[in-house]
Every structure is written in C-alpha cells, then in structure tokens.
Give the backbone structure.
Amino acid sequence: MNDKQPNIDPWGSELVGEKDYQRIIEEFGIEQVEDLDIPASFFEDNQFFRRKLIIGHRGFETILKAIKLQKPWAIMSGIKPSGKFHLGTLMTAKEMVELQNQGGFVYYSIADIESYVDHGMTYETALEIAQDNIADIIALGLDVNRAYIWLQSKEKLVKEMVFEAGRYVTLAMMKAIYGERRFGLYNCALVQVGDILLPQLKEEVMPTVVPVGLDQDPHLRLVRDLSKYFKRDGVDLIKPASTYHKLLPSLTDITKKMSKSISGSSFYFDQPEEEISKIILRTYTGGRRNKKEQQELGGEPDKCMIYQILKIYFEPDDTKLGEVFQKCINGELMCGDHKRECAEKVLDFVKNHIKKKERAIDIARQLLNFD
C-alpha cells in the first residue's frame, strides 16, 4: 500500500480523510448509502443521512426492514473511558441518540477492559470517567429507559467472548484484519465481538446497527464474520449492521486526526468559555489570503472547520446552514466574522449542555452502580 494512504486502524492516530473515503469503501466492500431504499420520513428525521455525514454502511437494510415491519431493533455503541467528553466524542453519541429517537433500543458498552489494556487505566478510574461520560450522553438526549448500559469487566457474556469467539479465529486471521499487535489488543477486539452481539445474545435475535467512524470498520468485519457461529435458542444471529460517518479532523490542521493531546485540536465541554472561544477563533477555515480574494473567489466551506462543526453539531436548521454555504462560496462571508458567530453558537450549546449534565450526573452514577 502507498505510504501516503493511511491504514484503517481502530487504535491509531492517523487521519482517514475525505480523499481516502472512496478508496477504502471500494477496497473493503463497504456498501453505498445511495443504494439504500430509505423512506422519506426516516431520511428527513435523521440529520446524519440528510446531510450526507454517513458515507457508507454494511447491512443497514436490515434496520430499515425492521422499522417498516415495526419489529424490534437495536443500536449498539460505547465509549472507551479515557478522559472527558470532547468535540470528537460528540459525533457518535449524537448519531446514537438520533437513531434511538427513530425507534431503536440502545445498548451501550463502557470499554473499561480496553482502557486497561490500551492505557493501563485501573477499572476504578475508568468507572469514574464513565460516570462523567454517561452524564454527557444523557444531557445529549439519551432516554435511559430505552437503554442498557454495561461495563465490559462486569458483563459475563462479553468477557467470555474472548474464549467463545477465540475458538473460531487464528493469529493469521487477526493479523490480516488488524496488523501486528500486542495480544491484549487482539483480545480486546474479541471482547468487542461480545459487546456487539450482546443485544441478540442477552435479549432476542434482532437487527443491530453499530454507528462508527470509518476507522472502526475492522471491528465490524470481524464480528460480521464471527456472528455465523452463534445462536440464541437455536436461532441464527443476524449479522450486525453498521453505518460509517465522516471523521472530524483537527480544528487547526485538516490533515491530522483530532487529538486530545494536541492543544487547539478540539475542546472539552467543561473548559472555561474564554478558552473555547479562543480555540474557535483559531480554527482553520477555507478562506482566502485576504478580503479582496475572498470576495472575488469565494471561500471553500468544504475545507472549513467552522462550517463543518456547524454542519455536524451546532446548526440544526438546514435552511440557515445552506445560507452559510452560499454566502461563503459567493465571497459574502468573511472568516473572522463567521468565527465569532460560530463561537457564540458553540458557547450557547455548551452552557445548555452543562446545565443538563448537572441534572444527569446522579442518574449516571445510579446506572453504573454495579455493587
């Protein structure tokens, strides 16, 4: 593979950018969203499909069929508790909540085993972080009455999957999917097989969708291959489906992956307002070198991180978003002014989010009380 073409690495720090999407979709047999027969009502109610933030899928037609037949279906997601909630973590959580609003039941894994293997984090520390993360997700709109949340280290079916799924994999197979890794990460991948199959193993055989970034596709290829070996009450499991959303790059460098370790690359929701505002004002835009060029040539919103975060997170109104796009390409929108407007929207969101989170923290602690 060309050195300039990033590998698909669920544990890596390399950005899979827009220029790589089509190559990866074709190389790994990911299905095109355009080929799905999506009902207009579902499409209109789902911002991620409507704004073309979903760039591919595997087996999502099983979810659409369940919705049409009014059958149960599940959304499986999770988080590796390694730190505070930030802008990059927000995308999958928002997509999960949106799907729940469309009728799915949420199954949510706290990947504390993976945090231990990958970062050496103790289970006690992971639990504290997880409580904070879950409060963030409740603040985003998660209906906890239609959700099941677990810790990998506490869920017997999930932990045992290392041995159950391990009967059907070889070292060569794991290397082919993930490359050369520490064995602990191979084990984590098998634990995730348990996470993804848990809705069907614990409740009933039903379609399940896993919303992820494109870099997580190796996990989905593994579980879809292994699902054929498992049954519930003598009934074959349904291959888990997946949707793949675009990956948000660094706010300051669109060639790099958003990283908590790089200053200004992202921001946390509990940072002081002035810090968040400064980060927004330093964000990379698709603007020209000067005002004259901007007016003559227009901006490039597809390269602009201000436009991207509005599109994904902070501008719910499609008409207003379209106006921003048009003004930008027409050269009517100056980047400095637009950054200041965006900063106001972001801070309004953050203030409201913090208020909701404060009300949710006790609920999160109760949900994760496994004593």
Notes: The mean pLDDT is 93. The radius of gyration is 21 Å.
